[in-house]
C-alpha cells in the first residue's frame, strides 16, 4: 500500500510499521513535550498516539492495564501503597484503585497535557480514577521523583512510553536503582518493556539491571494487539516471595478482591511467566 492517506502510521522500528485507519482525527497538537493525537478507529475505538506511537486504545487497553496492576498487586497480597510512573491516560490508576485494599496511589506523570487531554477525550479509560481521593497526581519527571522521594511503596508500576524522548530516562540503571530504594519490604517493581521480538535489546538491558538489583527478577508476557510484533514483556523485580505464590493463593486473593476482569485470571497470571525460547535467550 503506498497511499496511506487516512491512516495513522506508526514507525517505531527500523523495518516494521503498523497502520490504523483513521475514521476521524479528534485531536492533533504539540504539548511542548511530545506530539499528541487522538484518532478514532472502527475496531479499536479511540486511539492515543504520542510522537506517532500508539500509547493506548479503548479496544485493547484492558490487557495491558490489568496485567501491570493485578499481577503485582495480587502476588504481593497486601499492597496498600502503589506508585505509578507515567500512566497519563489514567488506565493504570483505574485498575489499581479497583482494589479496596489499596489505600494510596501516587501517579507521577511528566506531561500534564496527557492527563488533561485524556480526561476530555478518553474518559472511558480513566473511568473516574482522577476523582478518587486515594489518588495523588504529581506532574513531574518520574526519574526525578524516584531520586528525590523518601516514600516507599508496595508496588511500583512503570507505565512509560518507549525509550525515546522523555521516556528514555525510565529505562536506565540509575532509575531502576532508585526504584529499588523506594520499595517497601516484599515490594514488587514491574515495568513495560516493549515487544521483545522487535525490541529485544530493551528487554536485555532492563533484565541486566534487574539481575544486579533483585533476588527475584525476570519478565512475564501478554499480547496486546496494537503493540505490534508479538507479546509484550513486563519486567519483574522483587526481593520478596511474590512470584512463588501458588495458584490457590492467587485465586483466593482474586475472589476476595471481588474484581471482574476481562483478561486477568489467576491461571493467566501464573502462565504469563512461562517464557518462549527466543525471549529466554534475551535474558542474561
Ligand atoms: N501503554 C503505553 C505503551 O506501552 O506504549 C504507555 C502508556 S502512556 C500512559 C506513557 C506515559 O508516560 C505518557 O503519558 C508519557 O507522558 C509518560 N512519560 C514519559 N516519560 C516520562 C517520565 N520521564 N516521567 C513520567 N512520565 C513520563
Automatic annotation (TrEMBL):
NCBIfam families: PRK00811.1, speE. Residues 5-239 form the PABS domain. Pathway: Amine and polyamine biosynthesis; spermidine biosynthesis; spermidine from putrescine: step 1/1. Homodimer or homotetramer. Catalyzes the irreversible transfer of a propylamine group from the amino donor S-adenosylmethioninamine (decarboxy-AdoMet) to putrescine (1,4-diaminobutane) to yield spermidine. GO terms for molecular function: spermidine synthase activity. It comes from Tranquillimonas alkanivorans. Its EC number is 2.5.1.16. GO terms for cellular component: cytosol. PROSITE patterns: PABS_1, PABS_2. InterPro entries: PABS (IPR030374), PABS_CS (IPR030373), SAM-dependent_MTases_sf (IPR029063), Spermi_synthase (IPR001045), Spermidine_synt_N (IPR035246), Spermidine_synt_N_sf (IPR037163). CDD domains: AdoMet_MTases. This is Polyamine aminopropyltransferase. Pfam families: Spermine_synt_N, Spermine_synth. GO terms for biological process: spermidine biosynthetic process. Spermidine binds at residues 65, 89, 159-162. Keywords: Polyamine biosynthesis, Spermidine biosynthesis, Transferase. Belongs to the spermidine/spermine synthase family. The active site is at 159 (proton acceptor). S-methyl-5'-thioadenosine binds at residues 34, 109, 141-142, 166. It catalyses: S-adenosyl 3-(methylsulfanyl)propylamine + putrescine = S-methyl-5'-thioadenosine + spermidine + H(+). It is an enzyme of class 2 (transferase).
Amino acid at each position: 500500500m503506498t497511499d496511506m492517506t487516512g491512516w495513522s502510521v506508526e514507525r517505531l522500528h527500523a523495518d516494521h510499521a503498523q497502520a490504523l485507519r483513521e475514521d476521524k482525527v479528534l485531536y492533533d497538537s504539540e504539548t511542548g513535550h511530545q506530539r499528541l493525537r487522538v484518532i478514532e478507529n472502527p475496531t479499536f475505538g479511540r486511539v492515543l498516539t504520542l510522537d506517532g506511537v500508539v500509547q493506548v486504545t479503548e479496544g485493547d487497553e484492558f490487557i495491558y492495564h490489568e496485567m501491570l496492576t493485578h499481577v503485582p498487586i495480587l502476588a504481593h497480597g497486601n499492597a496498600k501503597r502503589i506508585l505509578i510512573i507515567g500512566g497519563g491516560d489514567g488506565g493504570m490508576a483505574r485498575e489499581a484503585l479497583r482494589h479496596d485494599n489499596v489505600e494510596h496511589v501516587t501517579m507521577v506523570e511528566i506531561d500534564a497535557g496527557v492527563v488533561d487531554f485524556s480526561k476530555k477525550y478518553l474518559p472511558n479509560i480513566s473511568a473516574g480514577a482522577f476523582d478518587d481521593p486515594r489518588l495523588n497526581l504529581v506532574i513531574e519527571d518520574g526519574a526525578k521523583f524516584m531520586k528525590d522521594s523518601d516514600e516507599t511503596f508496595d508496588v511500583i508500576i512503570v507505565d512509560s512510553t518507549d525509550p525515546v524522548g522523555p521516556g528514555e530516562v525510565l529505562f536506565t540503571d540509575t532509575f531502576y536503582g532508585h526504584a529499588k530504594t523506594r520499595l517497601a519490604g516484599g515490594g514488587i517493581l514491574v515495568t513495560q518493556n516493549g515487544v521483545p521480538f522487535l525490541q529485544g535489546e530493551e528487554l536485555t538491558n532492563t533484565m541486566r539491571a534487574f539481575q544486579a538489583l533483585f533476588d527475584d527478577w525476570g519478565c512475564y508476557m501478554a499480547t496486546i494487539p496494537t503493540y505490534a510484533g508479538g507479546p509484550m514483556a513486563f519486567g519483574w523485580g522483587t526481593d520478596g516471595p511474590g512470584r512463588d505464590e501458588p495458584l490457590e493463593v492467587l485465586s483466593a486473593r482474586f475472589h476476595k478482591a471481588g474484581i471482574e476482569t476481562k483478561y486477568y485470571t489467576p491461571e493467566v497470571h501464573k502462565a504469563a511467566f512461562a517464557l518462549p525460547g527466543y525471549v529466554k535467550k534475551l535474558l542474561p
